[in-house]
Amino acid sequence: MPKPRFVHNLKPDAVQAAVSGMSDPTGFLISPGNAMGQSLELTRFVRGRGWDLLADNGNFDHLTPIARRFTVEATALRREVTRIERGLGHTVRNGELPGPLTTRYRGLATRVRRAAVAAVPPDADLLAAQVVLDPTAVVGVEDLTMACWLRLDIEPEYLHRPRGSYRRLNRSVARRATAAEAGLAPRLAGAHLPVASAVSFNTAKDAGREFAAAGLSGIAMGFGAYMADDHFADHLYRDRRRIDLGANLPQRYTRTAAAAVGFWEGYEEVAHQPPQRFHFLGIGAPIMIAVLTLAAARTPELSFDATSPILDATQGGTIYSDRPAHLKLRTRKIAHRLAREPALTWDCPCPFCTDFTGRHPFDYPAGHAWLTATGAAAVSTADLQPAGALFTAFPLLAEPRAGELRREVNFARVGHNHWIIDRLMTSLSRADDDGRLRVRVTNIVRDYQDCTTPVFARALEVALALARGDPIPAPGP
């Protein structure tokens, strides 16, 4: 049933790639705050070409400034939690923090909530700014509180708040969304996507219940805070049951899957059908796109967006791959492998790599000679910079300074990362058409597990079980 698609951020390079035929995006995303000057002209160009335009609410941009205001205090509290967890021998469960520390966390959470509420513009003002862009859909009203708590590592176990207090936040958003939709132009009927929030399976399930009770069929949910979370946990709660995972696992995988599954479970419990449209905000990791598509398989219209394919390519030195698995590869590691394996070449068939390497070919013998001469165990960042020995040997992997070559490298890498994601979307759609989505996603996860560490492999095992609706398997020996 699902036809997943990835919505590209509206950037000049993304539009250039689409116009040239190098990419075939299903739509673009921009927030009103960024729609100025050239970007505003791009919105008009995109709509003139008949491409879909999703107007974001821009709220993600508020997270970092809010987090900075409270980082020192949150970090100090987190150090105390870490000390307690060392003594316990496991991550904190509900009720295990000392009362005074819980009280301090609650005070911090209250102040963060006030800042989150104050940062968001009035609903009517936001919608008016979005509609001016002539979008085909809008990311709607949102409460940033839970996303801010996640950014600051304010976990439910630290607050020990009643479950209903989280539910009320989503109930308020659902009511605001109903009011906003009453004033929408007919052409945007069904295209207003209010944003649900959660910090766990249970809070996501309650969010689903509230959005279903309000009759909302098109929904977005913020997952960017989950994917930016470096917190590990050895358990999760599902309804009244605590599930022990057997190890400290990255919550960016386990919580992301649990929140999606919880939302659908709660929504369908009330509506007796799935949401008809759902947008995953902040999901660009190919492996999680696959898992979440399976978790949301009963919803016909799924979409994703994230800036990570851009930031990974331009700032993180990271290139996506789907062979032998859907991985994010560091350019330094790719360069070292090319230098040490004479039979290996960069043979990506995407139009971005083909175009770039046609004008800036790899000099493989130079790379082999460098390794023979140095015997280096790894490629350093300096090796790929302008004065580095591999700068001209592997230009796609190099890090030029500002200038034309830098622009070309960025264009190729960003385009390549999006091409990998778009190819995954096509693969998932075809698998669903053939009734093989469950098998396809399972194979994607298995391939990933074969290439990663045991901890991350276990996290994906848990995420896959949640998405498949299977019991979470016991950890291996």
Topology:
Elements: E1 5-6, E2 8-9, H1 12-20, E3 28-30, H2 38-48, E4 53-55, H3 60-88, H4 99-119, H5 123-131, E5 137-139, H6 145-151, H7 156-159, H8 163-182, E6 192-193, E7 195-196, H9 201-213, E8 218-222, H10 224-227, E9 232-238, E10 241-250, H11 251-271, E11 277-281, H12 286-295, E12 301-305, H13 308-314, E13 318-321, E14 327-330, H14 331-340, H15 351-359, H16 364-374, H17 404-433, H18 437-451, H19 454-468
Parallel strand pairs: 1-12, 2-3, 3-4, 4-5, 5-6, 7-8, 8-11, 11-12
Antiparallel strand pairs: 9-10, 13-14
Helix pairs in contact: 3-4, 4-6, 8-9, 9-11, 11-12, 11-19, 12-17, 12-18, 12-19, 13-17, 14-16, 15-17, 17-18, 18-19
Task: Write a structural description.
With 477 residues, the protein is α/β, with parallel strands linked by helices. The protein folds into two domains: 5-305, TIM Barrel, CATH 3.20.20; 315-417, no CATH class. Helices cover 53% and strands 12% of the residues. The protein contains 19 helices and 14 strands. Strands 1-12-11-8-7 form a five-stranded parallel beta sheet. Helix 1 (12-20) links the parallel strand 2 and strand 3. Helix 3 runs antiparallel to helix 4 (99-119), helix 4 (99-119) packs across helix 6 and helix 11 (251-271) runs parallel beside helix 12. It is globular and about 65 Å long.
